[in-house]
Design brief:
357 residues, alpha/beta, six-stranded parallel sheet
Length: 357
């Protein structure tokens, strides 16, 4: 049987992809090939962009015999026009998106894949039949903790928590400052440890950008807190940080408030990827109860949900017990290992693509 030729329009360049490009597209290629699809990258920007100029691309895609085109998070007039041109030529189109709602793209394409049931629920009723949930697949399922430690946490022998983020945080959400018996490592968008000049420059501009004296003083306390360290994210180091940690933290600022009749704020439409990554490691996790996380965590069983600083401290205190950490961490891994695996998400995507035939 001749493979189905499918082309991908990427959000970022495949040589240095953003996590969403890697997770939603590149990781899927081996599974697609095994399922008799022939995947190709038909457009990738030199620098990441959600609104590329795709004018003039349709004739090539039609001539080269593509049967399906997948748009990875890109949108805008040029993308919508290409989707219409391809549809007129009998080529099916899919819009894949992870953290926003775009009704225009969902209407212009044959199917839209979103990463959570909550995101699906935000689309109009008339488009619901075209919206499909394909979660972000866990990338490194073999990485896991094997030792949860025996310490209860003290100033001399603190427990270690890890917070993985795509941002360069200038404060510790919810907690503010960790208790003396806890060290927190934030893995995010920071200069590498050896780039001292760049770190100092970024700290200076971040300090200068604070709104008032109170915020500046808070940032100085954040920078000088011995129990907080900020590390640059890298695909190997992040797993080592999680393996060495005792507790996972995934707290987000749940503001601004979601007002009736207004689009959901960015914090409310986040993917579950960083949560499932930590849980798959076997980390007991404390998370803000946003829609993507609430559907995964059973409070006190395979993780903890914390709406306030007080909730967070209660959960941290519960996890000072090493047996509790191991039990919750083991249940966390068990609850996400298969459901959120790359294989399971590839199966969901392939089901959507096969529905066209």
């Amino acid at each position: 049987m001749t493979p189905v030729k499918i082309g991908f329009v990427l959000l970022s360049n495949s040589k240095y992809p953003m996590p969403s490009t890697r997770i939603a597209v590149l990781n899927m290629f081996p599974f697609l090939r095994a399922a008799n699809f022939d995947p190709h990258i038909v457009f990738e920007p030199a620098k990441e962009t959600e609104t590329p100029n795709l004018s003039g691309l349709a004739p090539r895609l039609i001539t080269e015999g593509f049967e399906i085109i997948f748009f990875q998070k890109v949108h805008g007039p040029s993308v919508e026009e290409l989707a219409r041109q391809l549809s007129a030529a009998g080529i099916r189109t899919v819009y894949g998106v992870c953290d926003l709602v775009n009704v225009a793209m969902a209407a212009a394409t044959d199917a839209t894949t979103v990463v959570t049931d909550y995101l699906k629920s935000l689309y109009p009723r008339e488009l619901q039949s075209k919206i499909h949930v394909v979660h972000d697949g866990i990338e490194n399922q073999s990485a896991r903790k094997t030792n949860w430690g025996e310490q209860h946490g003290s100033q001399r022998r603190p427990l270690r928590a890890v917070l993985v983020t795509s941002a360069g945080l200038d404060h510790l959400p919810l907690l503010g400052a960790p208790p003396e018996w806890l060290e927190v490592t934030i893995v995010g968008r920071y200069p590498a440890n050896g780039q001292i000049v760049q770190r100092l420059r970024e700290a200076y501009w971040t300090l200068a950008g604070q709104k008032n004296l109170h915020d500046r003083w808070s940032y100085v306390r954040f920078l000088t807190n011995r129990n907080i360290r900020c590390l640059a994210w890298d695909p190997v180091g992040v797993y080592e940080c999680m393996r060495q940690a005792d507790i996972g933290i995934i707290v987000v600022e749940s503001s601004p408030q979601h007002l009736p009749g207004r689009p959901a704020p960015s914090w409310k439409v986040k993917s579950e990827n960083r949560l499932t990554m930590k849980m798959c490691m076997g980390l007991p996790v404390i998370a803000t109860p946003i829609p993507a996380y609430e559907s995964i965590i059973e409070h006190g069983v395979n993780g903890f949900l914390a709406r306030s600083t007080r909730d967070c401290m209660r959960s941290l205190e519960a996890l000072r017990d090493p047996e509790r950490r191991q039990m919750v961490g083991a249940l966390a891994r068990q609850s996400v290992l298969e459901k959120y695996s790359m294989r399971a998400q590839a199966h969901r995507l392939i089901t959507v693509l096969r529905s066209f035939s």
